[in-house]
Amino acid sequence: MCEFCHRHGEGEKWYLQAQNYSQDLLSDLNRRRFIEHFFKNPEMLEKSQEKLDYLNRLPSFVRSILTPFLLKRQKRNHYGQVVPLEDIQKILEMANSVVRLPCVCRKASLGTEERYCYGVSMVPPEEFKLGQVIRSIDADYLNGPEARGLETLTTGEALVQFRDLESKGLCHTVWTFLTPFIGGICNCDRSDCMAMQSTLKRSFSVMFRAEYVAGVNPELCNGCRKCMRACQFGAISYSAAREKAEVDLRRCYGCGICRSYCTNGAIVLNDRSASPIASRLW
Ligand code: SF4
Ligand code: SF4
Fold first, then answer.
1. Topology of the domain comprising 212-273
2. Which residues contact 199 (CB under 8 A, 6 or more apart)?
3. Could you say which of 41, 43, 81, 190 is the most buried, measured as most Cβ atoms within 10 Å of its Cβ?
């Protein structure tokens, strides 16, 4: 279990606890301001990447002092976790409101509206405060080239979209807006997602790995390597001698995308906590 499970989930998966999506948390004035600032200033994400580049150029002893402080602040404000599709389904089944909206990361990195982000809440759509907050921010943000604004979805519709995003290799993540309030689920990829870039390219993790790790059943694996091409974390290698795929548990984020790509059903997700190698890797 990650540290948020201990702190905000009473030892269970914190992102499956309904209170972490609650309206009470959203009604906090600081949180509303934080969300407004986040959506109004997508360029802030690019600046944060520049700051991380600057941090990485500093002498190592300065980095070792600054990094824990910055990480603590990140975890307090806006932090994520990789979540596989079956747990996304559980979140969607708990939610009373689901809206699809443009991704702030892609807005900053590509300048386009890519609808990879979802706001979720436990209250009915008519009381969905996060939607109201976002709607009030900036009409341009929600009515750009695609001009669809916030799309309200049923659980079933959202799930179909998540399956489609999974088939495109996108990694599902949940995000806090002043922890522990979870305001959104995003669909990340390495090339234009700032969160993945911070975590993987700039060595500043802004998200936990999933509560799972992947494993390959050699009896079912035919060595086709589809899983290897799908893994965004470089966690799968191919053994020429055995003609099988292998998962490096030290690299695996537990997203489950490889499992979707394996037509032989050779990949399963196991509990991270049961793995002596991966249980302390977050
Ligand atoms: S996709 Fe499945 S069958 Fe193909 S190499 Fe990976 S684990 Fe083996
Ligand atoms: S090995 Fe599979 S579960 Fe692990 S990070 Fe790669 S795609 Fe995700």
1. Alpha-Beta Plaits (3.30.70)
2. 205, 206, 207
3. 81
